[in-house]
Design brief:
GO terms for molecular function: ATP binding; ATP hydrolysis activity. The chain is of the alpha/beta class. Helix content is 56%, strand content 12%. It has a single domain, classed as P-loop containing nucleotide triphosphate hydrolases (Rossmann fold). It is built from 10 helices and 6 strands, in the order βαββαααβααβαααβα. A 6-stranded mixed sheet has the order 3-2-4-1-5-6, with helices on both faces. Strand 2 and strand 3 form a beta hairpin.
Length: 241
């Protein structure tokens, strides 16, 4: 079963991910997690310790995985190549960055589809689509709809949002704690992060209209984890095999 989280930076995806892993562990369910800059990780998602989000370790991991992907040619009929061709970006640097992220995500998605168990994508393909639109030369909701038509659907999609001022405060606090190099290499910045919130909401409307299996969560309020986990278990019972 594949569960995907999406929403603007600062909305609370990591907090929700940790809560879901801990809550599902109480039901005897072990979860494998996937993040945008690393492939599937096994085991530690149920632990109480906070995820290491900042620092030189993240930069090293990103650089180590970037080279082979940047030098490769993506399959033209694959999701990664089609997304990047559909939404050309203004910046060559961000084009390289998104090529790496989306290629790794597609590989993780392929692994998850071919495996048994629960997989939660903290930053999955819908999140990547949101980022592409933020960075696009000429963003268009019609292009977004065209992309959604060929993108793989998870078994459950959880949209996380928060009021704009809450997002602004969290983003400013986050950027103040991060090394400058990491901010320059990996982050969208406060203004782009807030712009991504608007785009996430528009894409959420498209997903609901197209019948994607979607739950909405307010990241500014305590998460109703029991309700979400009940929905996860309900969806799992309907998944073939």
């Amino acid at each position: 079963m594949i569960i995907e989280l999406f929403g603007p930076p600062g909305a609370g995806k990591t907090t929700l991910l940790r809560g879901l892993c801990q809550g599902m562990a109480k039901h005897g369910i072990n979860v494998k997690t996937v993040n945008g800059y690393r492939l599937i990780e096994y085991g530690s998602a149920q632990e109480d310790g906070p995820e290491v989000r900042h620092g030189i370790g993240r930069i090293g991991k990103k650089i180590a995985t970037s080279g082979p992907v940047l030098l490769s040619t993506l399959p033209k009929d694959g999701v990664a190549a089609r997304l990047l061709a559909s939404i050309p970006l203004r910046s060559r640097t961000w084009s390289w960055r998104m090529k790496v992220d989306i290629a790794l995500l597609c590989e993780s998605w392929r692994q998850a589809q071919q495996s048994e168990g629960y997989f939660i994508f903290e930053e999955g393909l819908i999140q990547a689509l949101c980022a592409l639109v933020v960075l696009a030369r000429t963003p268009s909701i019609d292009v977004v709809r065209d992309c959604l038509a060929f993108m793989p659907r998870p078994d459950l999609l959880i949209q996380i949002d928060a009021p704009q001022e809450t997002l602004r405060r969290r983003l400013m606090d986050r950027h103040a704690q991060q090394p400058l190099l990491e901010v320059l290499l990996f982050e969208l910045g406060v203004d782009r992060g807030l712009r991504q919130a608007d785009i996430s909401r528009e894409i959420g409307k498209c997903l609901r209209q197209d019948g994607w299996p979607l739950i909405q969560v307010n990241g500014a309020e305590p998460h109703d984890l029991d309700k979400i986990i009940a929905r996860v278990l309900e969806e799992y019972e309907t998944v073939p095999g």
